[in-house]
Design goal:
By secondary structure, this protein is mainly α. It has twelve helices and five strands. It has a three-stranded antiparallel sheet with strand order 3-4-5. It has a two-stranded antiparallel ribbon with strand order 1-2. The chain is globular, with a radius of gyration of 24 Å.
């Protein structure tokens, strides 16, 4: 990539030296105290921005270039969350180098789109959830794995990344109750758990029996048949593909119903069956109960909407 001309020392000085975009990124990543997952996310966004600069032969990005980059990624019909992620990464980079007089903060006045209210994914009905589980019935190891995956997503409200990070030894008993310890969102270790229902535990046990002699340190769910997977651990993209496949199998091909919809289904069905709000918050591992309240507001909006009180006949 072409070198980026940046100020050396004080931004007002006219003496300049050249530094590549890769050097900016390297400096950012080396000095920031980032988790591995956060670093991967930044790198993904920086790659998109780098390609954008290279295809337009931009060596010295300006505020106008950042604005046009924003228009570009929004025009690609990416989800609003993807746009927010890419723009936030670029803003963080230039804010960091700008604060250290390495490069002007040309992105400081660029506004990041607001997150939409509510949820971007729909939940399944009870009947659809039941049908989804039935569609995964089978006796081979892959079918047993898929059935266990669907059960734990629907009955325990796990995120796909939490499911993929789980090890066999994370299935334990807490005061006689079977639980799965998970590394929750934003956590550094597995210090949260979900209660395993009889059905979800049974599905896991039947799957592990077919794997024979599993060790506690092994991944709870394996990527069977994928020779390119060196760790053997089921990947999040594979979980999304698996869920989408079974949804399609029962005739659900809706962009608003995805793997994450199973987590929404868990919370929705729990509240519909009068689970205490605080219990749902703990099960979902929401740090703020207002996030959990969205489910309650949606339920109340649908069942007690003011529209239903209009009588014109």
């Amino acid at each position: 990539m072409n070198s980026v001309v940046v100020p050396s020392g004080n931004l007002q000085q006219e003496s300049r030296r050249k530094i590549s975009f890769e050097d900016l990124v390297t400096t950012f990543l080396e000095r920031k105290d980032l988790k591995e997952s956060s670093e991967e996310s930044y790198l993904s966004s920086f790659k998109i921005f780098k390609i954008y600069l290279e295809t337009r032969s931009i060596s010295h990005p300006t505020e106008q270039d950042i604005k046009e980059f924003k228009d570009y990624i929004m025009g690609r019909y990416l989800s609003v969350f993807t746009v927010i992620s890419h723009l936030s990464a670029v803003k963080s980079l230039f804010s960091f180098v700008g604060a250290r007089d390495i490069y002007p903060d040309v992105a400081k006045d660029i506004k990041v789109p607001k997150k939409p209210k509510g949820f971007m994914r729909d939940a399944l009905t009870k009947e659809q959830a039941q049908e989804l589980l039935k569609s995964a019935a089978g006796d081979d190891v892959t079918s047993k794995r898929d059935f266990a995956v669907l059960n734990i997503l629907l009955r325990c409200g796990l995120r796909s990344v939490e499911l993929c990070n789980a090890d066999v030894g994370d299935v334990r008993y807490q005061n006689g109750t079977p639980v799965l310890w998970v590394q929750g969102k934003g956590r550094d270790c597995k210090d949260e758990f979900v209660v395993l229902t009889k059905e979800s535990l049974s599905a896991i046990e039947e799957y592990l029996v077919l794997r024979k002699g599993v060790k506690p340190s092994e991944p709870l769910f394996l990527s069977h048949g994928n020779r390119n997977n060196k760790t053997g651990r089921l990947a999040t993209r594979s979980v999304r593909r698996i869920v989408k496949g079974y949804l399609s199998k029962i005739g659900i091909n809706n962009s608003r119903i995805t793997c994450h919809s199973l987590r929404h289904t868990f919370a929705t069905l729990a509240l519909e069956n009068n689970a205490p709000l605080l219990s749902v918050q703990k099960a979902m591992r929401h740090s703020n109960i207002n996030t959990t309240l969205i489910y309650t507001h949606m339920k109340d909006r649908l069942t007690n909407g003011a529209e239903n009180y209009i009588k014109l006949d």
